[in-house]
Amino acid sequence: MYTDFLIKIKNAQMTGKKMMKTRSTRMDKVIAEILQRNGFIESVEVKGRPSKRFMFLDVRAKRKIEGVRFYSKPSVHQYIGYKEIKVAKGGHGLTVLSTPKGVMTGKQAKQEKVGGELLFQVW
Q: Which segments does the entry list as coiled coil (predicted)?
């Protein structure tokens, strides 16, 4: 689940680790690529055979994850339209949504005029 994945990254950065190894899922890989594009992690590498894939993350980055707020949970899903998307922490954070066009940032969703399930914000 992506919630555990994000908390692992946050904890690895807080303890000063350079690399992190975790099981790879499609959702986690997409989220890792979004975090990499936005400067929260340095690199993402997937290794292993299809049944046992692992993701190796270089968590040293200019921006560290200081906080995470989860909106949608397995029991409660929160959906928003593209006009309702707000910036996280005054523009210093990142909002991530799951849309019909895939998982993307709030900024991308606004540009493509597509809403979806609000997953989380990081700052």
A: none
Are 77 and 103 in the same domain? yes
- In a shared domain, residues 9 and 54: yes
CB contact at 8 A, 59 and 68 = no
Q: Which 3 state secondary structure label does DSSP give 56?
A: strand
Domain boundary among 33, 58, 83: 58
Structure tokens at 18: 């350079």
Clarify whether residues 50 and 82 are in a common domain.
no
- Map residue 50 onto helix, strand or coil: helix
> Which is nearest to 55 in space by CA: 63, 69, 44?
44
- 52, 11: one domain: yes
Residue closest to 109 by CA, chosen among 71, 68, 80: 80
How wide is the angle at C-alpha 53 spanned by C-alphas 42 and 17, nearest 5°? Answer: 35
Q: What is the pLDDT of residue 109?
A: 97
Q: Which domain holds residue 110?
A: 68-122
Query: How is residue 16 written in tokens?
Result: 């000063």
pTM: 0.92
